[in-house]
Amino acid sequence: MVTSGLNVLDMSTAVSVEDRVRARVRARGIDPLREPSAVRSLVDEVLAELIVDEDIEGAATAAFHAIAGFGPLQPYLDDPQVEELWINAPGRVFVARGGRSELTTVVLEAAEVRDLVERMLRVSGRRLDLSSPFVDAMLPDGSRLHVVIPDITREHWAINIRRFVVRARHVGDLAEIGVLSAKAAEFLDACVLAGLNVVVAGGTQSGKTTFLTALLGSVPATERIITCEEVFELRLDHPDHVALQTRAPSLEGTGAVPLRRLVTEALRMRPTRLVVGEVRQAEALDLLIAMNSGMPAMATLHANSAREAVTKLCTLPLLAGANIDASFVIPTVAGCIDIVVHLGMEAAGRRVREISAVTGRAESGVIEMSPLFCDVDGVLTRRDGFPPHRDRFASAGIDVTALLAGRAS
């Protein structure tokens, strides 16, 4: 029941509206989360029947949020400035705007928190219980939900809702808002057109998924993209795209579909471009094998620099088994990865800090890298490095030497 932000009269009206609308939702078999427009019509229908003296707009909105949204959290989920919302305890609800966190005035009951999570998970089909105390799921608006319950947490349910407030469809859109320079954006667009293998690295909340989505906007419409993710996050506007996500095991411990399996299955679906949403573990090996077979691919991973991203890609495949060793992995990474983009979170917002090329050479276990663009006093500046595979650029009709001439501003 919603009470936040309403006076006594409005609260009474909201309760009356909510109760009546809920009754009609049940009677007509409406799924509120899937059919919010039908709920809005019912709210208007009930309001037309009520005769009240006070302003009922706030009560109507509260009732709609309670039934077709996520109650007192919904105003924050509708706010385009809110990047993330999290709940540490029923009375400790936080949001982040512009990278800065703030405590909200929302106070919930423990039962309300559980109720909200149950509704959030209803559409995803994923479960949360003592045998599976973690869950990742996607909300109807594309936001990513993560929940942890006791006794993994000390006392209260811990909830994070990560939103994607920047809907960039092309890397050029990110250049317009200052994430990178126009010259660097033009270069990365050319890399995608030429079919180079690109890795996007950065810390948590640095904008890796948004940046990868924008890069995929450069993929020609004639290509077929298969994306593999733990939870659906990439939202592509591409005519030939299939999205795959992992699946947790059932109560019997069967039916799990890990990321490694998705990568294997994706290769059987005639892709011309393979994408792994985030590389965390042994799936790095399967990604490298796909790249090594000539399949253009992209991925993201957590790393503090372009160099660390390459080092991590040399380490993660070793998790696949004792028969995989560095003597195989290091030259494979050197020969497969072409471009590494590193993102960072700064006071002014998310920015590209460096773009480096992997030359294809490795010596004494160290992979050679060539800096293409680096942040110098807040400006992404062209360095003297050069990308590999000039022949691929030429085949795509791109004069990469001319493109990289001069300095990025």
Structure characterization notes:
Helices cover 35% and strands 23% of the residues. The protein has 409 residues and is α/β, with parallel strands linked by helices. The strands form two sheets. A nine-stranded mixed sheet has the order 9-8-10-11-7-12-13-14-15, sandwiched between helices. Helix 1 (8-28) crosses helix 3 (57-68), helix 9 runs parallel beside helix 10 (283-292) and helix 10 packs across helix 12 (326-336).
Topology record:
Blueprint: H1 8-28, H2 36-49, H3 57-68, H4 74-78, E1 82-89, E2 92-97, E3 100-103, H5 110-124, E4 134-138, E5 144-148, E6 158-162, H6 171-176, H7 182-193, E7 198-202, H8 208-216, E8 225-229, E9 241-245, H9 259-266, E10 273-276, H10 283-292, E11 297-302, H11 306-315, H12 326-336, E12 339-346, E13 349-363, E14 366-376, E15 379-382, H13 390-395, H14 400-404
Q: What is the third-level CATH name, the topology of the largest domain?
A: Rossmann fold
The major beta sheet can be summarized as:
9 strands, mixed
Sequence of strands across the biggest β-sheet: 9-8-10-11-7-12-13-14-15
Unreliable segments of 5+ consecutive residues: 1-9
Give a brief outline of the structure.
By secondary structure, this protein is α/β, with parallel strands linked by helices.
Keywords:
disordered N terminus; six-stranded antiparallel β-sheet; nine-stranded mixed β-sheet; Beta-Lactamase; alpha/beta; globular; 409 residues; Rossmann fold
